[in-house]
Design a protein that fits this description.
Layout: H1 3-21, H2 33-39, H3 42-52, H4 56-69, H5 74-86, H6 90-103, H7 108-120, H8 124-137, H9 143-159
């Protein structure tokens, strides 16, 4: 085979893998129908906006309203945990991230954020477990993996921990 055929074949294979892997960036990790449903939920939209504005009590209230109607919404659980972590309620935060990951074990945003929560309470070992999970979930390095890896490196630097 000549170089052009090999290149074309390789590109076709990579394109197929990218399509099969799907999307789902950011904290959501959902996609398709779920994103449309959430975009039409005024509480979810308001909660997401409150998180962007770092209005953590409002984020908690809106995501709890979403979860009262849709307790299987992993994205809402993830946002709830994110807000609770920023409010310093670590026990509630870990429970919320746990629910997100129970519903969707491949939720990249929840793996990233719970890893960051573990760093906040000094559990580097647990943060690294979630980094390993992200490494398996991301075919190519993804934003969630890169962010958590950077936070772990910062934590190690600040605490004088040697890299593994």
């Amino acid at each position: 085979m000549n170089k052009h055929w090999i290149t074309a074949l390789l590109l076709a294979c990579l394109s197929s893998l990218a399509i099969a892997a799907g999307g789902g960036g950011g904290g959501g990790g959902g996609g398709g129908e779920m994103e449309k449903q959430q975009a039409s939920d005024p509480d979810y939209v308001a909660g997401e906006q409150a998180a962007k504005q770092e209005n953590w009590p409002q984020t908690v209230a809106k995501m709890q309203a979403v979860l009262a109607r849709d307790p299987k919404n992993a994205d809402a659980w993830n946002y709830l945990g994110y807000a609770q972590r920023h409010l310093g309620d670590m026990d509630a935060s870990f429970k919320s991230y746990g629910m997100a990951l129970q519903i969707n074990p491949k939720h990249r945003g929840a793996h990233e954020y719970v890893g960051e929560a573990y760093l906040k309470v000094g559990r580097l070992d647990k943060a690294e477990e979630h980094l390993k999970a992200l490494d398996k979930l991301c075919f190519f390095p993804c934003e969630e993996y890169s962010e958590l890896k950077e936070k772990i490196a910062d934590y190690r630097h600040e605490h004088g921990e040697a890299a593994k």
